[in-house]
């Protein structure tokens, strides 16, 4: 595994564009640090500091930071699709196989690299969230500080799932731009399936359950939006705002199943394709 990751890192670090994109994908999630220190002046009457509103208290901070950080995954998605696009455009994929790398090892080298970068991104956001929470949170008990850290696991799996989907599209289409565009096509297809399920089942809730088994929606469902939760903390009497924001095992299982399917299909494509 380490040999394959090291091989892939050597390829990635030869490209200045990839280095910049990787740097951006790791740095941008840290904008939450800037967000926590923002002070908004309301025409000189009073100043509101976001960090003082309680949104960075433990344990809710794990939910908030992972939710917002997940939106920066598109920068590394460009790196993922370029890993495949460059292999085809530069004809290095054939050379790798000639040099003794099996087709299975070729796909695994990409997948292990995805896991590696997803793990690094998760560790970074965990460290950032921990120190922001220590600074702003009024809770210091370990049981509260480390409660809901399952959002970090959900964040990691969400990244691996999304990047594996990008890997599959890149293998399918052989072109970076087309692979990224196909993500938008899949987004539209999933909504068409939703509307089809809605017309058949006659229920929005049932249709969303069907949509929840699809790749993009299942990945999104791993970390629900935290806005209603923030409203509940400020207005606890608003019972109508209550919703289930927890990370569920079956949501993780669905994404893990898609990861396995996408890696398998990527390998099948490579085995059947004439290089």
Automatic annotation (TrEMBL):
The chain crosses the membrane at residues 20-40, 60-84, 111-132, 152-170, 177-197, 249-270. It comes from the Bacteria. One of its GO terms (molecular function) is ABC-type transporter activity. One of its GO terms (cellular component) is plasma membrane. It holds the Pfam family ABC2_membrane_2. Keywords: Membrane, Transmembrane, Transmembrane helix. This is ABC transporter permease. It comes from Bizionia argentinensis JUB59.
């Amino acid at each position: 595994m380490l040999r394959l990751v090291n091989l892939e890192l050597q390829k990635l670090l030869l490209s200045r564009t990839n280095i910049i994109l990787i740097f951006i994908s790791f740095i941008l999630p840290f904008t939450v640090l800037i967000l926590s220190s923002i002070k908004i002046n309301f025409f000189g009457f009073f100043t509101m500091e976001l960090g003082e509103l309680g949104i960075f208290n433990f344990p809710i901070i794990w939910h908030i930071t992972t939710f917002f950080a997940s939106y920066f995954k598109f920068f590394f998605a460009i790196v993922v699709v370029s890993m495949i696009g460059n292999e085809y455009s530069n004809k290095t994929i054939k050379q790798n196989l000639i040099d003794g790398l099996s087709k299975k090892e070729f796909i695994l080298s990409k997948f292990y690299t995805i896991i590696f970068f997803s793990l690094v991104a998760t560790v970074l956001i965990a460290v950032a969230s921990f120190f922001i929470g220590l600074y702003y949170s009024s809770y210091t008990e370990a049981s509260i500080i480390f409660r809901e850290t399952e959002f970090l696991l959900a964040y990691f799996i969400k990244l691996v799932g999304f990047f594996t989907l990008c890997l599959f599209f890149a293998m399918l289409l052989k072109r970076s731009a087309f692979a990224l565009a196909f993500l938008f096509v899949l987004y539209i297809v999933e909504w068409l399936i939703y509307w089809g399920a809605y017309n058949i089942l006659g229920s929005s809730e049932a249709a969303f359950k069907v949509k929840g088994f699809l790749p993009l929606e299942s990945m999104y469902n791993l970390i629900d939006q935290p806005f209603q939760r923030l409203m509940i903390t400020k207005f606890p009497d608003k019972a109508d705002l209550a919703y289930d924001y927890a990370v569920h095992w079956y949501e993780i299982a669905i994404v893990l199943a898609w990861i396995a399917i996408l890696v398998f299909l990527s390998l099948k494509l490579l085995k059947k394709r004439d290089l």
